[in-house]
């Protein structure tokens, strides 16, 4: 398992300690929560990485300056409007 998968699993375990014993059951609401947690963790990580990429590109003179709170626009600049409104 990659370190990022291990980190994600550790986040789930911290929020759902009863999963450690291997007796895992999910209700539809639990599955929805799992998907929401996965999305949020991915979004948080992606935003952090995008901010670092943006800063490095800006320092290299490749990217125009943008306010630090507009890192979400990095996704739009690279991938189009796919990330808007998510």
Describe the structure.
By secondary structure, this protein is mainly alpha-helical. It has one domain (23-83). It has helices at residues 3-15, 28-59, 72-79. The longest helix is centred in the middle third of the chain and has 32 residues, at 28-59. The protein is elongated, with a radius of gyration of 17 Å. The model has no long low-confidence stretch (mean pLDDT 75).
What attributes does this structure have?
about 90 residues, mainly alpha, about 60% helix
Question: Quick summary of this structure?
Answer:
The chain is an all-alpha fold. Helix content is 62%, strand content 0%.
SSE blueprint:
Layout: H1 3-15, H2 28-59, H3 72-79
Low-confidence regions: none
**Tally of separate helices:** 3
Radius of gyration: 17 Å
Give the terminus-to-terminus CA distance: 28 Å
Supply the number of structural domains: 1
Number of strands: 0
Structural class designation: mainly alpha
**Largest sheet: number of strands, sense, barrel closure:** none
Average pLDDT figure: 75
Order of helices and strands: HHH
Helix content bin: 55-70%
> Which percent range describes the beta-strand content?
under 5%
The rough form would be described as: elongated
């Amino acid at each position: 398992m990659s370190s990022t998968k291990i980190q994600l699993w550790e986040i789930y375990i911290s929020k759902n300690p009863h999963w450690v014993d291997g007796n895992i059951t999910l209700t539809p609401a639990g599955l929805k929560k799992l998907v929401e947690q996965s999305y949020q963790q991915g979004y948080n990580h992606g935003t952090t990485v995008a901010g670092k990429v943006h800063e490095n590109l800006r320092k290299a003179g490749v990217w125009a300056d943008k306010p630090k709170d507009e890192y979400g626009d990095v996704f739009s600049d690279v991938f189009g409007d796919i990330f808007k409104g998510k």
